[in-house]
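User: Can you model how fe (ii) ion sits in this protein?
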Amino acid sequence: MRNAVVEALANDGFLLDQEAEEFILGQPSPLQFARQAISQLPYQPLVVTMRDLRTVVRVEAPRLETVPRQEPLPSRRLGEVEVLKDITSHSDCLATVEGFARYFQDRFASLKGLLLRRRDMLGAISIQRAMDPRKLQADEVKVIGMVNEVRETRSGERIVELEDDTGRMTVMVPKDSKAAKDSILQDEVVGAVGRMSRKDRKLILKELIRPDVPFGSGMEVTDSTAQVAFMSDVHVGSNTFLEGRWQSMMAWLKEEAEELDIRYIVIPGDCVDGVGVFPDQEEELVIEDIIDQYRALAEKLKEVPDGIRIVMQPGNHDMVRPAEPQPALGEEAARLFDSSILQVGNPAYLRIEGRTILSYHGKSFDDLMSGIKGLSYSQPIKAMEEMLKRRHLAPAYGGKTPFAPERRDYLVIDEVPDIFVTGHVHGAGVSFYNGVRLINASTWQDQTSYQRRLNFVPEPAKLTLVHLGTGRPAVAEF
Ligand SMILES: [Fe+2]
Ligand SMILES: [Fe+2]
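Assistant: Here's the modeled complex, given as structure tokens:
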């Protein structure tokens, strides 16, 4: 019965949080009760909570709703490399309606927390309070909400439906406002500042605030002399893997690593080409078995000079679940690699010699490039800036990036990293954003037939180095 009720309500467009679900299921005719209660709500929440139900039905012994406090995760380490946060062995995803509701609650709570730290969001109130007809504010109002819907009126004005845990509100974006040209994504969490119109209780937007990265974040100079090399999208197993250029890079590394003090290598995903990732992939494989692909990569990495620690992360071509966050490679593949190689999940927060590195393969580029005006595959760094502004690695839900509804949203950029690295687009770029060093880390695969059809020209065989003491980047081409 439980599933039938929850599913019927989901089909109506409503999810229940756990407490509301228990309460509803405890009623004599749960579905009828829930539909009647929800129809009486003055707004349409995506997730119905006890707080909503209490506004329309009598509930005995009300309990206060609290967001469960997240325990800090225990960290793993290999020498100087410490994994601060990744999903590996912490997965508790619940692929049900309640699981998704829980996931979005955590995403909202985390990003709201970041917005509330901003000085310009001081005095933010709940949507319910902003909408209260008795207290309709004459002054400026600030609210924080998750974007439920973005649409355009016939006259070309944009309307954004915002939602928080108390209600929903309509925000009008005037054509002459700064936000008019801004791309607002579904499910991103924003601050909205404006005035309430008395007539229809809509917020007329003056300013859209994103959590963003504080100005002047990032690296202060330390006395570390080590360098980290970023080596993404190796795609071993593909017939377009650039064997010759890989070998020149390896020869260079053997020659220069000591002189340049290269002590770490990070591989941000698509370590091998995988199997069955796209239609007819087998025609483009020289190694058809994925375990054999990992075996070949393990052999290649044995040539890396001793003393260099390697961090390997999966991407959308690797042998882990495609839904993000992805855990580290499983035992069957991981055991093929030396113990000097640390397997981490995607995304992962690492700390190396005091520097915080956020490494994310970058599957969500596929959604951002189509969702945000002005972005293109040739400028992945711009898309990385959009992630930092939104403090989320995959701000648009429901596109090409599959998600696993974990209890906590591992894709939130809750800590500002010193270095933020991605791969996936097979481009290569280095930049700074508010002090954060941005790296998009090339590939070791030549143009594929798919990329040729799309007229996409990759920038392969570049090794990007970052000095951990100064943050200075360097790119070696092969
Ligand atoms: Fe790739
Ligand atoms: Fe990829």
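A couple of observations from the model: The longest strand covers residues 141-152. Residues 61-69 have pLDDT under 50 and may be disordered.
User: Helpful, thanks.
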